[in-house]
Design a protein that fits this description.
The chain is of the alpha+beta class. Helix content is 47%, strand content 19%.
Length: 193
């Protein structure tokens, strides 16, 4: 999950919690005229009575602004929540990288697969995964490299540096920032039972 989406989620949850806490505190502590009028064990009007007094309900319905405001707020809240939920799922759309040649562009997935293949061809690399993110002013390339058990990062790093410099040269008008993350699988020891 991207950092911007995480911040947005936390702000939304925090704002919702703050609104609910404020509303709950106000309901619990405020001394307003309608608080004592809430129905207790018996509702007004007998067993089949309504929650709201019919006279009050008729007074609210007589106001011309009430229905459009309720409908508008409900529709806006529904649309905003639907857009937010759709954004959470992600569209799978990946941006293309425009190259120096006129009319030439490159899919980020094609660049990722090419870098992955070249990195996995290096001696000492058992698995690699490349991820390319297109930012406004630069490209971020993240290489997650899993090394073989007997291989150290120092033996693989020159080949990965050459791969990164080749990628930067081929994407010349763009600034490229490459990060490499190493992981290794330790030797498996037999378990004694």
């Amino acid at each position: 999950m991207t950092r911007g989406r995480t911040v947005l989620n936390r702000l939304t949850l925090g704002a919702t919690g703050l609104v609910l806490l404020t509303a709950g505190g106000w309901l619990a502590l405020a001394r307003t005229t309608w608080v004592p009028g809430l129905p207790g064990a018996r509702t007004p009007g007998g067993e089949y009575g309504t929650f709201v007094d019919p006279a009050q309900l008729a007074a609210v319905r007589d106001r011309t602004w009430w229905t459009p405001v309720v409908v508008t707020v409900s529709v806006l809240a529904t649309v905003l929540l639907a857009v937010w939920c759709a954004r959470q799922l992600g569209s799978g759309f990946r941006r293309r990288i425009e190259l120096a040649a006129p009319g030439a562009d490159l899919r980020t997935r094609a660049l990722e697969s090419a870098m992955t293949e070249h990195a996995e061809d290096l001696d000492g690399v058992s698995h690699c995964r490349a991820r390319v993110r297109v930012r406004r002013a630069r490209l971020d390339v993240i290489l997650r490299v899993r090394l073989r058990p007997d291989t150290g990062p120092a033996t693989v790093l020159p080949g990965l540096t050459a791969l990164a410099s080749t990628t930067e040269a081929s994407l010349a008008p763009h600034r490229v920032r490459t990060r490499v993350r190493f992981a290794t699988r330790s030797h498996r020891r037999p378990h004694v039972r």
